[in-house]
Amino acid sequence: MKHMKTGFAVMAALFFLAMSCTTTSETAAVAVAAPRTLDWQGAEFGDPVPDWVRAVASRDYGLLSKLPEMSGKVPMAFSGEGQDRDLLEIWVDTNDASTQMVRQIQQTITNTAGTLASGNKDNSESVRKMAESVTGVWAQATISGFAKMRDFWTLVQLADGSKEYRYYTLYGIDQENLEYQIDTVMGKIKAETEAEEEVLIKIEDAIKESAFAATGSVERI
Question: Phi and psi dihedrals of 138, rounded to 5?
Answer without folding.
Answer: -75, -20
